[in-house]
Amino acid sequence: ETADTLGVRIFTADIIYHLFDQFMGYKDELKNRRKEENKNSAVFPCRLRILPTCIFNTRDPIVIGVTIINGILKAGTPICVPSKEFVYIGVVTSIEINNKQIEAATTGLDVCIKIENFGGEAPKLYGRHFDENDVLVSKITRESIDILKEFFRDDMTKENWKLIVELKKLFEIM
Questions:
Q1: Do the beta carbons of residue 92 and residue 77 sit within 8 Å?
Q2: Parallel, antiparallel, or unpaired for β 135-138 and 78-81?
Q3: First to last CA, the chain
Q4: In this predicted model, what pLDDT tens digit does every residue of 85-113 receive, in sequence order?
Q5: Contact 65, 55 (CB under 8 A)
Q6: Residues 18-37 pLDDT 10s
Q7: Which residues pair with 65 in a beta bridge?
Q8: How far apart are CA 63 and CA 6, in angstroms?
Q9: In this structure, are residues 81 and 89 in contact, taking their beta carbons and an 8 Å threshold?
């Protein structure tokens, strides 16, 4: 009873290997639960090039075709333009490839993305605030980097960590 009130889990088994398996299963369950709780705060690094022939909507929501230069693009990623004084465009709300929605896009893929502005700022326009010559990047923060390190280390490649280092210098994050 005391264990239940304190939130302590008790493992019992006659064979030590079964006990070990139960503990490892519980540990994985906890890790997955914490990963799920923090997935909306995690901002994966990405660098995008706009495909000039694939501009479908120029104002909120912005719908454009992009090539993932490097990194991982996931729905929920905040996007900004470093070359235009880090102007914040909005959040990627959907990613499509061949008219099929996907969860994430990786280096080299050509995808169509929808960017919506949820902030209090005026919506940004393609052609006025940024154009096909600008490179778009995910807007990372110190908090998002710490979340990636703690919960999503397994999902990141060495190239993604290199991109994080580049973006940290770009955003002047210590």
A1: yes
A2: antiparallel
A3: 47
A4: 889 999 999 999 999 999 999 999 999 99
A5: yes
A6: 999 999 999 888 888 888 88
A7: 112
A8: 50
A9: yes
CB 94 within 8 Å of CB 101: yes
The verdict on whether omega for the bond into residue 61 sits within 30 degrees of 0, i.e. cis, is yes
Backbone φ and ψ for 169, nearest 5 degrees, come out as -65, -40
Is residue 143 within 8 Å of residue 151, measured between CB atoms? no
Q: Residues 125-151: what's their mean pLDDT?
A: 91
Is the dihedral angle over the CA atoms 100, 101, 104, 105 positive or is it negative? positive
Check: CB of residue 78 under 8 Å from CB of residue 124: no
Residue bearing tokens 């495909």: 51
Question: Position of tokens 């703690």?
Answer: 150
Which of 70, 56, 73, 79 minimizes the C-alpha distance to 160?
A: 70
Residue from 134, 133, 112, 124 nearest 67 by CA: 112
Which run of H or E residues covers position 19? Answer: helix 16-38
Instruction: Give dist(CA 89, CA 117) in Å, integer.
Output: 7
